[in-house]
Design goal:
Elements (H helix, E strand, L loop, with lengths): L2 H7 L4 H50 L61 E2 L12 E2 L2 E2 L5 E8 L21 E9 L5 E9 L2
Antiparallel strand pairs: 1-4, 2-3, 4-5, 5-6
Bound molecules: calcium ion (4 copies).
Length: 203
């Protein structure tokens, strides 16, 4: 029998097997340690894009509402907190009204479709099946559009536009004001909070 066919029949030596297994183990470590996290990371941008889309539509919806529940609905010529006759007081008989001191929905505004001013959204939170502005589930053919996403909203007066509420500024600032800060936080399915914000002015 020629020498070459004898060595083929004898298969791998123990040392060759050990080297082979070690090489395979190193290769596997590289795959799980380097490639697998990359696969994970490649999902994140999709969540981020979807979160941005969701936050943008929420902000658009909120910014489309009145500045305040006390805002003049007939053309908006009279702003809340505006002292029209400069007497240092806000009085109904002078056609003046104070802006809302409490951020939240007013009486009778029980769900999102009733919200008519920006601060009605303060404290709004939803997860599970997210809803659209009309209070309908965001689904297409029974498939949730934002499965495992959550969205929350915070609104407060922020007269100096530094993202810190008038109510907690030091030194103390006016309780109400002409600028409201709106913050939308979207939590992605992997638990990352993405924060978006905007201001609404009392025009
Ligand atoms: Ca007045
Ligand atoms: Ca309202
Ligand atoms: Ca309100
Ligand atoms: Ca502030």
């Amino acid at each position: 029998m020629p020498a070459s066919s004898k060595s083929l029949q004898s298969g791998f030596s123990l040392i060759e097997l050990v080297i082979g297994i070690t090489t395979f183990a190193i290769a596997l470590t590289i795959v799980t340690g380097v490639v697998a996290p990359l696969i994970n990371r490649s999902v994140e941008p999709i969540y981020q894009v979807r979160a941005t889309e969701l936050a943008q539509s929420m902000l658009n919806e909120i910014l489309g509402k009145y500045y305040d529940d006390e805002s003049d609905r007939n053309g908006g010529r009279i702003r809340c907190d505006e002292d029209l006759n400069d007497d240092g007081q806000l009085r109904k008989q002078d056609g003046e009204m104070a802006c809302s001191a409490v951020m939240g929905p007013e009486q009778g505004e029980n769900s999102r479709k009733d919200f008519d001013d920006v601060d009605d959204y303060n404290g709004y939170y939803e997860d599970d099946i997210l809803q659209n502005s009309l209070g309908l589930d965001m689904e297409i053919d029974g498939e949730e559009l934002y499965s495992e996403f959550a969205v929350g909203v915070t609104v407060f007066y922020d007269s100096d536009m530094d993202a810190i509420a008038n109510s907690v500024e030091i030194p103390a600032q006016e309780a109400t004001g002409n600028i409201k800060f709106i913050q939308v936080t979207v939590t992605t399915p992997d638990g990352e909070d993405m924060v978006f914000s905007s201001f609404k002015h009392n025009y």
